[in-house]
Design brief:
Layout: E1 14-19, H1 23-32, E2 41-46, H2 56-61, E3 68-70, E4 81-84, E5 89-94, E6 97-102, H3 112-124, E7 128-132, H4 141-149, E8 153-157, H5 166-173, E9 179-181, H6 183-199, H7 202-208, H8 211-225, H9 234-247, H10 253-262, H11 264-274, H12 285-301, E10 308-314, H13 320-336, E11 341-348, H14 351-359, E12 361-363, H15 372-378, E13 379-382, E14 385-388, H16 390-393, E15 396-400, E16 412-417, H17 426-439, E17 440-448, E18 461-465, E19 470-473, H18 481-487, H19 489-502, H20 510-525, E20 530-534, E21 540-544, H21 562-565, H22 568-584, E22 588-596, E23 602-614, E24 622-630, E25 642-643, H23 649-688
Parallel strand pairs: 1-2, 1-7, 2-4, 3-4, 7-8, 8-9, 10-11, 10-16, 11-15, 16-17, 22-25
Antiparallel strand pairs: 5-6, 12-14, 13-14, 17-19, 18-19, 20-21, 20-24, 22-23, 23-24
């Protein structure tokens, strides 16, 4: 990151401060340490009773000389001023001015800090701060997520110092706090942070940064997380790296790279920083209205009793979105009295997000957008939080999945992918939409974020609502099996590399290139036959040629296991031949495998050639190249080590099945031994307790 020799003109910084019970003392301690001629605007948002006059202006005025004003509707936001909200109103920023809103008149939960922080984040982006001081409850915890997502900084009073620690502890629990410090230090941290921001010409960085250095940073992340952030848009990455540079009080991208290489915990921090996103129940309520009033009723009505409605929520974050989908579908299924089941596959790349989603436990402020009836029907109180009931939870399967790299689900009735594409580079967006199209059934529904578009794939869809980007799939999607199989190779290689690191056996990356060349060579030798490269567990690492003719993706979920993807009449011979090639350590040709079509008519006869490839230094450690040769093609007989006798195929099949049974018995015996060992370890641990 380039550092200017001259300090840039300071950008107007707005500081939002959330406080509740015990907040007066914390506010006095904070403003005691703010310079008299501050360049910032301070907006104090509290939980105030509308039935009593607030004396906050008079009480704060005793401890600071900074001007204090009670906010008026459409008022200007000036620097070096403390603003207080009227007791009867909530506050947002709109078009650069204060806008006062009436508080809810019913007894629904009012969260003025969340409300203001979200509008502050949208207005000021990286030029804002959210501060959480003493208070009860969790107001502010959702708002700080918006501030972080837009590039602002989050500071929280040390809970041990707060008179009431509910708000600080709940804010810290989100993992979003950049600083957790005593209240009297917050002003200094603010000054240091934003002075660092102004000393680095951040806007110029977006165009003048060192691409080579950025790639090195992203390479470090990929090595440790398997996620390729080079697919993400540069401005987003730079803003979030820039925030880490300022939080750590560093002065350049070079300095940050050196820090990252020597501090493993920072790798995880940056990884989480990149994956921050804003979500809430029924976010952009109009989208959910459109789904509930027309699309979902039509879909449920089209199903017969016993059918399954399948939905894929891509980038599900901490679960609010898939649970919102589940609520709408369950309500409509009940309304139509249909005997259909619901399966929602909710996927994300962040295991931390998935862990939160799987627990299904949310604070009251997160659920503030739910009606009382929905809250009662789908959640139960558990301590201070609410937990998703089984009637909703059982419909949703949470899974770690990277849409840019992993095979998609298929035969989905609905695919929701909202506000993910905006973070990806344009060519990656095109690829992802291609995969989403593949995942949908004919007439399936696709929902994107309001700022996203279909791009070159618009002709594959019928527009249902332009503003909210809801579409219907009108064209049969192109089969992508080979491409999807190939896409898993890089991730599988990463997993093997990680396992090798754990075992102290680091293999050279050049092996991968060598093996790819082996595959290409095998295909050339077989005059265009289909080939697939697998590990010892039948996990597909590469696929080339016309392999997609024989592979079948599962109806639900996804897999990279070769045996799971093949028809039964082909899976058995391949498994047996691989096992035989492993035992004999030589290539084996299995002839005359009959493959049938969906109409049970003979489709083709294949010869299966399996070639073991030594992998690593361990005895018996092999990967395998499998080549499928249609019998109307000629193959090089010189390379055949062993072949099945066509006239004794029945006997050969019986022997193969017997050998497979022995393999299974051996594996079962090993599994039982491992179970017994685990049981002994548990008993030993029990005795120690």
């Amino acid at each position: 990151m380039t550092t200017n020799t001259k300090t840039n003109k300071a950008t107007h910084v707005i500081v939002g401060i959330g406080a509740s019970a015990g907040g007066l003392q914390a506010l006095n301690d904070f403003f005691d340490n703010v310079p008299t001629a501050s360049l910032y605007s301070y907006i104090v948002v509290q939980h105030l009773s509308p039935d009593h006059k607030s004396l906050m202006a008079e009480l704060l005025g005793k401890n600071t000389k900074i001007p204090i004003e009670v906010i008026e509707d459409e008022g200007e936001i000036k620097a070096n001023c403390i603003y207080l909200i009227p007791p009867t109103n909530n506050l947002v920023i709109k078009d650069g001015k204060f806008r006062l809103l009436e508080k809810p008149k019913d007894k629904s939960l009012n969260l003025p800090i969340d409300l203001f922080f979200e509008s502050l984040a949208n207005h000021s982006k990286e030029h804002c701060a959210g501060i959480i001081l003493s208070g009860t409850g969790s107001d502010g915890s959702r708002g700080i997520r918006a501030i972080k997502e837009k590039g602002g900084v989050v500071m929280v009073q040390q809970p041990e110092q707060a008179k009431f620690d509910g708000m600080p502890r709940n804010a810290i629990k989100t993992g979003l706090a950049d600083f957790i410090v005593p209240v009297e230090r917050i002003s200094d941290e603010l000054s240091n942070y934003f002075e660092a921001q102004s000393s680095i010409d951040f806007d110029a960085e977006l165009y003048q940064y060192d691409e080579r250095l950025l790639k090195e940073i992203l390479k470090v992340l990929k090595t440790h997380t398997a996620l390729d952030f080079s697919l993400y848009k540069r401005p987003t990455l730079l803003r979030r790296i820039g925030r880490r540079v300022r939080v750590l009080k560093l002065d350049s991208l070079e300095g940050y790279f050196e820090y990252l290489k020597t501090h493993k915990e920072e790798v995880q921090t940056l990884y989480k920083e990149f994956l921050i996103g804003v979500t809430k129940f029924f976010r952009d309520y109009k989208v959910w209205e459109l789904l509930a009033e027309g699309i979902i009723p039509e879909l449920v009505a089209s199903k017969d009793d016993g059918d399954v409605i399948k939905v894929w929520d891509v980038g599900c974050s901490t679960g609010e979105e898939p649970f919102s989908l589940g609520i709408l579908f369950l309500e409509e299924i009940e309304k139509q009295d249909k005997d259909v089941s619901l399966k929602i596959f909710a996927t994300d790349v962040s295991q931390d997000h998935l862990d939160i989603a799987s627990r299904g436990s949310y604070s009251e402020n997160v659920l503030s957008d739910l009606s009382k009836d929905r809250l009662k029907k789908y959640f139960r109180k558990h301590g201070d939080d609410f937990v998703v009931k089984d009637n909703l939870r059982k419909c949703i399967i949470f899974s770690n999945h990277d849409i840019t790299n992993d095979p998609p689900f298929k035969n989905m009735d609905v695919v929701m992918c909202r506000n993910l594409l905006i973070y990806l580079q344009n060519d990656v967006q095109t690829k992802v939409i291609h995969l989403l199209h593949y995942a949908l059934k004919q007439d399936g529904i696709l929902t994107l974020g309001s700022s996203e578009s279909l791009g070159v794939h618009k002709d594959n869809f019928e527009e249902i609502n332009r503003k909210w980007n809801i579409y219907r799939n009108i064209e049969s999607s192109e089969r992508l099996k080979t491409e999807m199989l190939n896409s898993t190779a890089e991730r599988q290689t990463f997993k093997r590399h990680e396992n090798g690191m754990k075992n102290g056996n680091v293999q050279n990356y050049s092996n991968t290139q060598r093996l790819k060349e082996e595959i290409s060579k095998a295909i050339i030798q077989q005059y265009g036959a289909a080939s697939v490269y697998i590990d010892e567990n039948f996990q597909i690492l590469e696929a080339m040629g016309a392999f997609k003719k024989y592979a079948q993706l599962p109806e639900e979920g996804f897999t990279t296991n070769l045996i799971d993807m093949l028809p039964e009449e082909l899976a058995g011979p391949i498994k047996n031949t691989v096992n035989k090639a492993k035992r004999k350590r030589s290539q084996i040709l299995y002839k005359d495998v009959e493959v049938y079509g969906d109409d049970e008519e003979l489709q083709t006869r294949l010869d299966v050639l399996v070639k073991p490839i030594k992998n690593g230094v361990a005895e018996g450690d092999f990967h395998f190249i499998i080549t499928l040769i249609e019998q109307d093609r000629e193959h090089n007989k010189a390379i055949i080590v062993e072949r099945a006798d066509i006239h004794k195929s029945s006997q050969e099949r019986i022997r193969d099945l017997e050998e497979e049974l022995k393999e299974t018995q051996y594996e079962l015996s090993n599994a039982l031994e491992e179970a017994e060992t685990s049981n002994e370890e548990l008993q030993a641990a029990n005795e120690e307790l």
